[in-house]
Amino acid sequence: MEHYYRELVSFLSARLGSRQAAEDVAHDAYLRVLERTDAQQIEHPRAFLYRTALNLVVDRHRRQRVRQAEPLDVLDSDERWHIQAPSQEMQLDQRLALMQRALDELSKPCRDSFLLRKLEGLSHQQIAERLGVSRSMVEKHIVNAMKHCRLRMRQWE
Question: Which residues does the UniProt record annotate as the domain RNA polymerase sigma factor 70 region 4 type (predicted)?
Fold first, then answer.
């Protein structure tokens, strides 16, 4: 299914008007497909991936509309945004520790590609230039890192 990635990003770029946003949605779509809990084989993987991505675009658009309509003073006064329950905080710490363990198992170029994309928000081209590898290699590293982390998180939880 990885071979649809570039095609999907181009498709989404045309709809979103931003390659960066398109790459984010494509990554999220791949994660959604990888996170499926049912073991049923996907009959038409390309169509399924595109449908997932389009659903994410619609969700993203709805969230932006709600965010724009929400007065900022309401968000400031809402304690849910500032305080987490201790059990939620501990769960988050445990999940982060597991994620770090999974990332530590990856090769350095794979881990670096993933972290530069997800934490620093660099584009695939910027990562390729920084690491001295091809753009397609960066894309493969990121998809492989996502697969690996998802698999390990499932095994450990």
Answer: 98-149
CB neighbour list of residue 136: distance below 8 Å, 6 or more residues apart: 6
CB distance 63 to 78 below 8 Å:
no
Question: What are the tens digits of pLDDT across the range 28-54?
Answer: 888 888 777 666 777 888 888 888 888
pLDDT category at 90 given cuts 50, 70, 90 is low
23: closest CA among 52, 64, 65, 53?
53
This prediction's pTM:
0.50
Residue type, 111: R
Q: Alpha-carbon distance 36 to 74, whole Å? A: 35
Work out the number of other CB atoms within 10 angstroms of the CB of residue 143: 21
